[in-house]
Design brief:
The complex is a heterodimer. Chain A is 41% helix and 14% strand. Chain A is an alpha/beta fold. By secondary structure, chain B is of the alpha+beta class. Chain B folds into two domains: 53 residues, no CATH class; 80 residues, Glutaredoxin (3-Layer(aba) Sandwich). Chain B is built from seven helices and four strands, in the order ααααβααβββα. Classes of the chains: A alpha/beta, B alpha+beta.
Chain lengths: 617, 159
């Protein structure tokens, strides 16, 4: 195994990889992240490999198993290079056809191409698919070149060149100056300027300092950090190395949620490989800089995404936050100066050092530079990970990239920033996505979740959902958060269940403002955002619940009735069997009925009925 | 009861109190829950008072102090799964098995849990059956999965 003890060793590995590549005629890129595996990518990979072997083609075709390419909904997929041909939603049984027609004869198989739900046409090249076209992919784009199990793949893309450059050409203060000049802000939510954080830790007194990668991506609806860590763990490691060199740390931690087992595995392998290659350890690349990284797993507590709570969790204790009268850059992990950045922030660092601050700052807005990965999910046609230049309007993301509403519904809001963020109505969709614009509108970037909601989504229910989440996740240390969230949930539950009184709306507003003001940590301070933003933009829905006892989206159970449309019902009996509460009766081939007294309004029958006969009003 | 072997879990971590969360995570994975005897050993070997071990075991959602069923069904209730109907899945469990999330069926076959997000949001609602991720779940698919896990066909309704 080669040991990298000098920058030119990287060059050698790179040219060897280029040589190997020139000997193969075709490359099949098959993503195999968590979401891909949920769609059956592992079986596809085995089938493709077996088929290549059977047809004697292993020599001139290489298969690269990578992390997620972002278009999760269309998985499992195969990207054929050169040619940029993307086959979507293929499975193991398609392997033989793909190998014998595309690999052997160079044919493009029409039926495997992406079917654009907007135009109804098949699209051959990945780059022409509207989902990809409007994006500005920097980080996710790298995923296709890298097998996360192969450090050599990463080196072949120019990996570890940035740390080599930093060690050779930059003093720590120059690295910090470069990161400051790039305008990079923390991708984890608050958008704190990364360079300033590093500078403070650099200047803080102490010999022992730490860098931490926050991969406790607890925001439900956001998974870009999982994707980056799974697909390109060395980019994160290299970013951390550069940060450690800049602030003077010799030890780093990657704090990953245990709910991401694949990310944990890939990180551990990447760290092991980097150690074996001499890229982690003593005297890295022949310099005086020594650094090592360890993985610490989270235990499934949302609050541990907060910096002080995360650090106590690494110390093996209960992850409760503390007041930040002294910042963690001065007193963090074990009371030492500590820099904590999120996965995406770290992954951006190597290219800043390599290409310069100006290159990075050429994308984005005045105060938010670079690109941001968003997790576009919910009720749109195309869902997946989307990387856009900061400042891209919400409308472009939802309609051009996302392809607009599903099933002819009307999109009415996007929820950004998870439980700390808020809901923005359709009329604000021209807002640019950057840290400040979203904040001013009462939401926040958060880690980048963007859940699209349509007229089948009830905003009172959304507020209730987040309050339940936060009640569950509040660590209970401070009163405003612990008790305030409970009381808010009480009110919103009253409203959702038809017991709401008009004066409760004012009380809810007041309570929300108090919790925001008085809570100890970021979780509590931002906890009222879902309530405040829905009150601000969707008051008419609250009023419909309170005054008319009606849920316009027909979601809130207490306010709706289920019935069967006798015209549409064929009497097939599927709903009757499916209903766990025995509330449906009827003879075979005759319209069935729902007993309103027994019906729990669970909605299971809707999913089972093939004839759209169940109505909710 | 067979004695629980903690050697490989404690290897290289003894007398290091900060390793508590890591040790408990491995123990949870190995045994499916945190047995009392093992917690006492962990307390001694790491040098963490037993009360602090319990405090940590209670605080983090990953830990279970009671044995889990043979089949662990985890329903993701993250935002994206929620707007696509993960509630219906929880209702399916309540109706079909008569248990709440976090509980185990009386025969010890199935434990159902909810998780806040597993990060496969584009494919929601997601259910994880032991280690296998299942995408775009519906109450119907879940019903069949639970029937299979329970090792029986659905009993006739009026039986």
């Amino acid at each position: 195994m080669p040991r990298v003890s000098h920058a030119k060793d990287l060059e050698i590995i790179r040219s060897q990889a280029d040589g190997r590549k020139s000997r193969t005629r075709l490359e099949l890129v098959i993503p195999n992240g968590t979401c891909c595996q949920a769609s059956g990518s592992a079986a596809l990979i085995d089938a493709v490999r077996a088929e290549l072997a059977r047809q004697g083609l292993q020599q001139d075709v290489s298969v690269r198993v990578t992390g997620c390419l972002g278009f999760c909904e269309q998985e499992p997929m195969i990207l054929v290079e050169p040619g940029n041909i993307l086959y979507c939603q293929v499975s193991a049984k398609d392997a033989a056809e793909i190998v014998s027609r595309t690999v052997k004869k160079g044919e493009v198989i029409d039926t495997f191409l992406f079917l654009d739900p907007v135009s109804g046409k098949r699209i051959e090249k990945e780059a022409d698919i509207p989902f990809y076209k409007a994006q500005s992919r920097q980080l996710i784009h790298m995923n296709r070149f890298v097998d996360p199990f192969s450090i050599e793949d990463y080196i072949a893309t120019g990996g570890y060149q940035a740390i080599a450059k930093a060690l050779k050409e930059f003093k720590p203060s120059a690295v910090i100056a470069e990161v400051k000049a790039s305008g990079l802000r923390g991708r984890g939510g608050a958008g704190f300027p990364t360079g300033r954080k590093w500078e403070e830790a650099h200047e803080a007194p102490g010999d022992e300092k730490y860098v931490i990668c926050n991969a406790d991506e607890g925001d439900p609806g956001a998974y870009m950090d999982r994707c980056v860590l799974e697909a390109n763990p060395h980019a994160v490691l290299e970013g951390m190395m550069i940060g450690a060199y800049a602030v003077g740390a010799s030890k780093g931690y990657i704090y990953v949620r245990r709910e991401y087992p694949l990310a944990v595995k890939h990180c551990r392998i990447a760290i092991q490989q980097a150690r074996e290659y001499g890229l982690l350890g003593e005297n890295i690349l022949g310099s005086n800089f020594s650094f090592d990284v360890e993985v610490a797993r989270g235990g499934g507590a949302f609050v541990c995404g907060e910096s002080t709570a995360l650090m106590t969790s690494i110390e093996g204790k209960v992850g409760e936050p503390r007041a930040k009268d002294v910042h963690t850059v001065r007193e963090g992990l074990w009371g030492r100066p500590t820099v904590l950045n999120n996965v995406e922030t770290w992954a951006n660092v190597p290219s800043i050092v390599l290409n310069g601050a100006k290159w990075f700052a050429s994308r984005g807005t005045e105060r938010s530079k670079g690109t941001k990965i968003l997790a576009l999910t919910g009720r749109v046609k195309n869902t997946g990970l989307v990387e856009i230049a900061m400042g891209t309007p919400i409308r472009t993301i939802v309609y051009d990239i996302g392809g607009g509403p599903k099933n002819g519904n009307r999109i009415k809001a996007v929820q950004t920033g998870g439980p700390s963020g808020g809901c923005l109505p359709e009329r604000l969709f021209d807002l640019p996505v950057d840290f400040d614009a979203l904040w001013d509108a009462g939401s926040m970037m958060g880690s980048g979740g963007m859940v699209v909601m349509d007229d089948k989504t009830c905003m009172v229910d959304v507020a209730r959902y987040f309050l339940k989440f936060l009640l569950d996740e509040s660590c209970g240390k401070c009163v405003p958060c612990r008790v305030g969230i409970d009381r808010m949930l009480e009110i919103v539950t009253d409203i959702a269940e038809g017991r709401g009184r008009p004066e409760q709306l004012d009380l809810l507003q007041e309570l929300a403002e108090t919790v925001a003001e008085a809570s100890l940590c970021g979780l509590g301070k931002s906890a009222p955002n879902p309530v405040l933003s829905t009150l601000r933009y969707f008051m008419e829905e609250y009023k419909a619940h309170v005054l008319e006892k009606r849920c316009p989206a027909a979601v809130c159970k207490a306010l709706v009735t289920y019935s069967i449309d006798a015209e549409k019902c064929t009497g097939c009996g599927v709903c009757l069997k499916a209903c766990p509460h025995d509330s449906i009766t009827g003879e075979k081939k005759k319209p069935h009925v729902i007993d309103a007294a027994l019906c729990q309004r669970c909605g299971i029958c809707i999913g089972e009925c093939k004839f759209d006969a169940i109505t909710v009003l | 009861m067979a004695k629980i072997n903690l050697d490989s879990i404690l290897e290289g971590r003894r007398s290091q109190p900060h390793m508590l969360v890591e040790v408990l995570l491995d123990l949870q994975d190995q045994e499916g829950y945190l047995p009392e005897e093992a917690l006492k050993t962990v307390s001694k070997e790491l040098g963490v008072p037993l009360i602090d071990v319990y405090r940590v075991a209670h605080f983090y959602k990953a830990f279970s102090l009671k044995p889990r069923g043979k089949n662990l069904i985890t329903i993701c209730t993250g935002t994206a799964c929620h707007v696509r109907g993960s509630d219906l899945l929880v209702n399916q469990v309540r109706g079909q098995l008569g248990i709440e999330p976090g509980e185990t069926t009386a025969d010890g076959q199935i434990t159902v849990e909810c998780v806040n997000c597993v990060g496969a949001c584009a494919l929601g609602p997601i259910v994880i059956h032991n280690d296998a991720y299942c995408k775009n779940m519906t109450p119907g698919k879940l019903r069949r999965k639970l029937d299979k896990a329970a090792g029986r066909k659905k009993e006739a309704k009026d039986a």
